[in-house]
Amino acid sequence: MKVEATEVDGRKVYxxxxxxxxxxxWLARLPTLWVEGEVTELRRQQRWQSVFFTLKxxxxxxxxxxxxxxxxxxxxxxxxxxxxxxxxFGRPELYEQRGELRLKVLTxxxxxxxxxxxxxxxxxxxxAAEGLFDETRKRALxxxxxxxxxxxxxxxxAKRDVLTGIVxxxxxxNVLVAETYVQGPRAPAAIATAIGDLCRRxxxxxxxxxxxxxxxxxxxxxxxxxxxxxxxxxxxxxSAVGHEQDSPLCDLAADLRASTPTAAARIVVPDxxxxxxxxxxxxxxxxGGARATAERHERRLESARERLRRGPxxxxxxxxxxxxxxxxxxxxxxxxxxxxxxxxxxxxKETVIRSPAxxxxxxxxxxxxxxxxxxxxxx
Length: 379
Fold this sequence. Notes:
By secondary structure, this protein is α/β, with parallel strands linked by helices. The protein is built from 10 helices and 16 strands.
């Protein structure tokens, strides 16, 4: 667009609008470029079409306004906050209405993110090939740890969250805290040393805790020294680093990952109130079971006592019935019973006569019938 000037007293005079249009046209010819700085004054609202922020030079405080379409900004899903160092790709432009220079942003990357991510991915693959992340290496946490080791920063919110959670859930718990660097170049060696020291002091479980932070802040927890220290820890170890979306490499080597330090406290100790409730329910079940068992044995004993009391009588009754049966059988076979049916027993000189040939005429005979005995003489 051609910008026209007005002749006034022999000089070319531009209106503010024309001047701004001219500068904007000239800036539009400049190429896209990368700018490094810290994010400040980040402003984003749902009804706005753009996201606004300021890039600040950390060395001298120089500032540059920046603007990016909200849809593109949200699609990056970076979770940027004030103070983070970034690389911004875009082109300069002039907001003509106000004559303000700003950077029209096309994309954003955290400072050094690409190189860091590539290095972390290579380290991740190499450690995975060694088996440091295998699920078969994971150990179960002790149900009732006698001594809990906590590796955290000095005066860190993460330390407070873990200790508060443990004391609230299980007041008898004993915690040994190892305060160390959790950020910066000295952090990896310090964290690895702290883990080893706690293991040598006889803890039953270790919690590695740090609150949220930027990608760079959490880099020590992806350092090879820390990952190997976690993997070689002689007791189960819980990684509670950052927030849910953070995933440092120590999470993969730990026996268990907690989404936050507060969640780690819920994992390493039981809830005393819940334990007491469960114990009370168990006690009631045992009491009820013992009472039911005693009542069952009491009924069995009463039944046995009744059987013992009735046993001799039943035995006598059975014996009496048996004797009666035998008596009846013997009675049926008795000669007396035969006599009752009209038969008689004939004797001659105490010899039972079974044949007429046994007597001669005139022999004295003794005849027994059912109701007595009388004499007779053979004819």
